[in-house]
Amino acid sequence: MPFLGQDWRSPGWRWVKTEDGWKRFEPFGRALQGGNSQLNDISHSVILTGGDDDEMYASEDCEFAAKKRKKDHCRNNTDSQCFYRENWIYVHKESTRERHGYCTLGEAFNRLDFSSAIQDIRRFNYVVKLLQLIAKSQLTSLSGAAQKNYFNILDKIVRKVMEDHHNPRLIKDLLQDLSSTLCILIRGVGKSVLVGNIDIWMCRLETIRLWQQQLKNLQMNKQVNNGLTLSDLPLHMLSNILHRFSDGWDIITLGQVTPTLYMLSEDRQLWKKLCQYHFAEKQFCRHLILSEKGHIDWKLMYFALQKYYPKKEQYGDTLHFCRHCSILFWKDYHLALLLKDSGHPCTASDPNTCLTPVSPQHFIDLFKF
């Protein structure tokens, strides 16, 4: 009989001989009930009468059938989320005697716990940047489950921003890039490159536009505070705060709060240091922009240079890659300090010497074959 099992170690399906030929036996198992998809208890054995003989089938077959039904139900349920709670995965790019197959971008995106990562303020910007890069160039390389997981995580991010008003500009840029990519794929390239029905993608595109409208109408609640405010700080402290920003748009936004902050945000030395932080001297020497007085306009230089060269990325926490055991993982610094644990099952004598921080672009490059 044909082999149809869970994997290569499975005993396969059970088959029953009838008058019409061989038929696959499907034991009476657990029925999915209600919106919560709860499984009822099942008896330990099922008796099937065929001819004069009675066959007893073990509960293992019943459990397998119940698992399969539950899995099929989850696949058909559009609200289900394909989230894993793993903090590390093994990155293998080719088949070996011990491991068969290879790890794809979609598998890594599914298995690493990005759902919890967005709740950590240190990892939030990192995950958003990764989603943005995937939206620009890697959306079609994700599997159907990974694409579904992608939009579930994106939904969580939008809800979080609507609740705590944290970094809405980043999410607006992400949604704009994602919307542009989907328009090109649906209208220009065609539906053949997208996994799933075209109506599902049209619905997702409408959802993205709804999110964009919600963020556009987002109103920041004015906090009433009778204590010390930002305007009460001395000028040197306000200038020190501005010098700690690594994004030009954050400086401009803060400069719109008060006339004093606007004056400080227009400081030439502030924009010069920002250019020197993000770009090499050879890069901004090729794109010099002079003001009417003949001085270098560092503010215009900054926005001109970021069109030609990538800015230096800065994140509170990132994924790490162990060169010794080829494992990609989230490193919990608090746990590492308490338990002196590297964050993954490493066999190296000193695991910390084998770790490499993984930028969002490096994460995508790891799975290019």
TrEMBL record:
Keywords: Nucleus, Ubl conjugation pathway. Pathway: Protein modification; protein ubiquitination. It comes from the Eukaryota. One of its GO terms (cellular component) is cytoplasm. Coiled coil: none annotated. One of its GO terms (biological process) is protein ubiquitination. It is found in: Nucleus. Substrate-recognition component of the SCF (SKP1-CUL1-F-box protein)-type E3 ubiquitin ligase complex. May play a role in accumulation of expanded polyglutamine (polyQ) protein huntingtin (HTT). This is F-box only protein 25. The lineage of its organism: Eukaryota, Metazoa, Chordata, Craniata, Vertebrata.
